[in-house]
Queue: 2 jobs
Job 1
Amino acid sequence: MPSNDPEAPCAQPAGVGEVLDTVVPFYGPRQAGITTPAQRHSCLVSFDVTVESRRDLGVIMRTWTGVAAQLCAGEQVTVATPAGKRTTPDSGEAVDLGAARLTVNFGFGPRLFGVGGPDRFGLLDRWPMQLVEVPSLPGDDIAPGCLGADLTVHACADDPQVVVHAIRELTRSAGNAVRWRWSQSGFNEAAASNGTPRNLLGFKDGTVNPTSPSQLADFVWASGDQGQDWMIGGTYLVVRRIRIDLAAWDRTPVEDQERVIGRYKRSGAPLGSTEEHDTLDLDARDARGGLVIPLDAHVRLAASQENWGQMMLRRSYSYDNGVIEGGGVLDAGLLFMAYQQDPRIGCVPVIEKLARRDALNPFIKHTASAVVAIPPGAREPGEWVGESVLG
Amino acid sequence: MPSNDPEAPCAQPAGVGEVLDTVVPFYGPRQAGITTPAQRHSCLVSFDVTVESRRDLGVIMRTWTGVAAQLCAGEQVTVATPAGKRTTPDSGEAVDLGAARLTVNFGFGPRLFGVGGPDRFGLLDRWPMQLVEVPSLPGDDIAPGCLGADLTVHACADDPQVVVHAIRELTRSAGNAVRWRWSQSGFNEAAASNGTPRNLLGFKDGTVNPTSPSQLADFVWASGDQGQDWMIGGTYLVVRRIRIDLAAWDRTPVEDQERVIGRYKRSGAPLGSTEEHDTLDLDARDARGGLVIPLDAHVRLAASQENWGQMMLRRSYSYDNGVIEGGGVLDAGLLFMAYQQDPRIGCVPVIEKLARRDALNPFIKHTASAVVAIPPGAREPGEWVGESVLG
C-alpha cells in the first residue's frame, strides 16, 4: 500500500475548474433553477419584508433581478442599491470563480398577499388561491422562526462559495428593506449529475419526476386560471426541512429500510422489480399473498397513481447543520423542495397523508416549512421578476 | 442574450467525476489531511469519550483506524464494531462515489490525559506539555458545549456527501463509546486548488504557510521531546470557529478593509507590494512617514517575524450555519485550523495578541475552540492511530 510520505507529490484534484465557467441563462420566460439539472450546492433563504408599500416591494425585486443577472453571468456585482449607492463593491469572495452554473430564483409567500395577516401591499386581489400554507401536522417540530416567508431567494451552483456569495450580495443589495427569517444550505453528491442522487437515507431520491414538456405543463407550470394570469410561466414551491434520525436509521437492517421506502437501496428499483425506473406495481403480491410494497411504504403513499395522477417536480438537497445544542444528536437530513402547479392538489395532500401513515415517520421530523409562488422569469434586461404582479 | 427556454438542452456540469476517484493513502508515518492540499469540503467533530478504561479507548481507536482506512480507499465499510457486530452494512449514501481524496485524522484533547479533570485513562504521565487549551479571551463568545474535545475526527474530501458519510460511519462504528459534543462542516472555493483560497472576508487566507520539509520539521511536526516520543510524527491542532459579521464587513470600504488586513483584497499582496507572495515589509513608510501596514493590521500581528520566527500551517475552511435563531443575523465565517509543533509558542500567543489588538476584532467573534494532539499515523494495516500511546 502506498505511503502518505509528506515529501512525496500530493494527490491533486483534477478537472474541478471545468464546471466553473458554465453559465445558466438568467433571463427567460421562466425562472431558472427549476428544471435546470440540480447543481451540487444550494441555499434557500426566507426573508421578512420590512417596507410597507407596493412600490418599495417592487424596488427590492427590480434590484434583485439586476443583481441576480450579474451573478448568474459570473460577473462582479455593480448595480446600485435601493438607496441609490453602494458603500463597497462586490464582497469579493467569488472573484476567482466563474458562474459555476449559478441559478437564482425568487418566491412570494402568502402573507405578501395579505393572507394570514394585514394586506400591507394591497395585493389581496392578486392572491393566487393555489398559494396555501401546509397545515400543522403530526411529526412537525418547526424550529423557532423557521415557518413561512414573505420572500424567498434560492441560489444553486456547483461551488458552495458562489452560492454564499450570491445570497450575500442579494441580501445587502436590498439594504434594510428585508430581514433574514431563516435559511438552509444544502448539498448533492457529485454523482447526481450522472443520475438520481442519494439522500442521507442512502436511497435514491427523485426517481419519478415530471420531465417531458407535457408533464411539466400539466403538473408543474402555473395555469394562470382564476384570474391570476400574472403567474403564467411560474410555479409553486413547497419547502420542508426534514431532520432524519440517522443513528436510528443506521440501526435498522437494510431489508427493513427497504420495506419502509418500498424500493431496494442499492438499485433504487421498486420492491419486486429490477431497474430503478421500472413502474411501481402497487398490486404485486408475494408467494404468501402479501403485498410486495407494504401499505405504509413511502413510495406507495407518495405514488402518482395513489394521488389523483398528480406529479411534483422534486429538487431536494441534503443538509448537515452539525450537532444540536446540548450534544449527542446531529441535525442532518433533507431540505425537501417540490414544484407543482397547485399545492392544494399536488404536494399538500401527499404531505398530510404521509404525516399520518408513512412508515418513515419514526425516523423523521419536519423542522422548517414554507410555500411560495415562483413568479415567471424576467424575459430580458429591463424586465424584472415580479413585474407581472407588482409593476 | 440566450434564453432559459425549458425545452432547450440544459447546461450540464462537466468533469465533476474526475475528482472522485482519487485516493489519498491513509497509511503512513503521519496522518493524512495535514499537508495534503486542501480538499473542498470538511467536517470536524468533537467527541466525548464515555468509556472508562485505556483498553476501551484503544478499542475505539483500533476500530476507527480500520474504518478510516476503508473509507479513504473508497470502499464500503465492513469492519466490526467494538461490540463485534454490525446491525446494518455501510449506510450507503456514498455508494456511487469514489474516495474523492478523502482524508480522516484523529486528535486527542487535554482531558484525555487527565488535564483539567480526572485522569480516567491513567495517561497523565504521557501528557505532552505542548497540549494546552487556548485561555478564555476577550472576543470569545463560545457557544454552549462548543469548547474542547476528548477526541476529534476531521474528515476532508472533494465531495460533501463523502465527508458526511465518513463522519457517520466512524461515529456509529464506535457505538456508545463516544458521544457528539460539537461539530462544524466547512467548504473551500473550487479555485483553492489553483492557489490560495479566499475566505468570506473576500481576502486570500493562508498565503504564508510552511511548505518545505525543513519548515515542516521546524514548525509543524512534533519533536517528541520532554519524554513524549510517542508524538514523533504527530503535530498539534488548534481549532477556532470565528463568526464574521458579514453585514458590517460589507459596509466597510475596501480601502479600510485592506488596512484592517494589511493586504490588498484583489491580489493578496501586502500593502505597498504588488505580488501575493512578496515579503511583508513591516517597516515600510508612506510619503507622509506613516507605516504602510498599520500597527493593528491583522498580518502584522500574525506575521512570523513578529512572533519569534514561528510559523503555523493553516488549513481553514469557511462555514455557513444559516440564520441564527431569532432571525436577522447569519452565523457564517471561518473554521480556523492551524497545525504546529508547540501551541504554547506557535498559535496561542498569536491568538492572545490578536484578541487584544487586531483591527479585525470589531467584525469577529470566537464561538468554538479546541486544541488536540494529532498522533502519528498508522504506518500499515495492523497498526492503529494512537497505538504509540495507548497500545
Job 2
Amino acid sequence: MDFSSKLLEQALDEMSQLPGIGKRTALRLVLHLLKQPTEQTDQLTKALQNLRKNIKLCRNCFNISDTELCEICSNTSRVSELVCVVEDIRDVMAIENTGQYRGHYHVLGGKISPMDGIGPSQLTIKPLVEKVKQGKIEEIIFALSSTLEGDTTNFYIFKQLEGTNIKTSTIARGISVGDELEYADEVTLGRSITNRVPFESSMKG
Amino acid sequence: MDFSSKLLEQALDEMSQLPGIGKRTALRLVLHLLKQPTEQTDQLTKALQNLRKNIKLCRNCFNISDTELCEICSNTSRVSELVCVVEDIRDVMAIENTGQYRGHYHVLGGKISPMDGIGPSQLTIKPLVEKVKQGKIEEIIFALSSTLEGDTTNFYIFKQLEGTNIKTSTIARGISVGDELEYADEVTLGRSITNRVPFESSMKG
C-alpha cells in the first residue's frame, strides 16, 4: 500500500508489529483515532507508557503486578503451600474467575518451544525449583495447555523436581460440563474414561 | 474480568475503545508489548502522538496529509477539473492503486448516517459545493459505497448541485472482472445489463 503521509506510514508500521494486526486493521484503528478528540490518543499512549514503565513482576509468583508482591501472594488467607503452575496472567485470571482455587500461582511466562527460540532458561522454572527445594511448597498443580509445548514444559519441570518428595498433579482433562458425548474428540473422551472419578465426588462441584 | 493490576486495567480500558478490539484482544496486545523491549512501546506511542498532533487535512481535498496541500493536489500534472468524491483515505488509496485515475479527489470524511448521528454539516460537502459554484470543477465522479448511507449522501450532494451545469457520474457497478455470472447477485447482474457498455470500449481497459 502507498500512503500519502509519512506520519501515517510510521504509525501504521508500529501498529502492525502487534500480533494479529495487519496494515489494513492498523489503518482502521488509526483513522478511528484521528476522528476522535486528541485526548483519546493522549490517554491511550499515556496508559501504555505508564503500564510499560511501572509494571512489576511479583517477586514470588512472577505474575504481573503493580506492587513488589502481588495481591494473591500477599493475601494471608490463601494457602501458600499449594502452587498452580500456569503460562501467563490470562490463565491466572481464568482460574481466579472460577472462585474454586485458594492456593498460590507460579507464572512461567511462556512454554518451552524450541521453534520460537524459547528454552527453559527464559522461563521462571529455576525459582520454582528453588522454592520447592527450600520446602516452601507441598503440592504443585500443572495447569499448562495440553499441547506439545505444554507437555514438554510439564515434563521438564517434573524431571527437575526428581529427588524432592513433592506431590504433583495436573488439572483434569475431560468432556466439558454440558457437552454432548457424541461431539467430543476421541482423545478427550478417552482421557475422561481413563481418569474417571468416584460418583460421589462428581456430585460435589 | 478481574485484573490484579490497576495499570493493566487502565491500558486495557483505553485499548478496548478502539473499534473491533475487545478486552481479550486488548489483553493479548498489551501482554505482547510487555514481553518486548520498552523501546517498542516508546516507538508505538511516539508514532501515534506524532501522527495525532502533526497530521493535517489537505485544504483543497481534505485528504490526510503531512502538508497544507496534499501530494495529489500539489501535483500539477493531474487534472484539477475532474474530482472524484470518496468517503475516506482508504478509498483514495484503492483508486490510486489502480493507476487509472489522473484527476483530483474530494474526501467527505464519512457518509450521511442519521443512525450514527452524522449529518451533512459534519462532512465536507459545503466546500465541495463552493468549489463547483466557483467554476473550479468540470466533472464530479461519485465513488461512495452503494449502501443506503452512500446513496443518501450521493443524492444529497446531487441536490445541492442543482442549478449548476456540472457533469456528474458514478463509478460503474457490475460483475467483477474474472467472476462467473452464475454466482453474481441479482442486483449487480441487473445493473451490469442496464448499464452495458459498447463492445469496443470494453476492449480498452
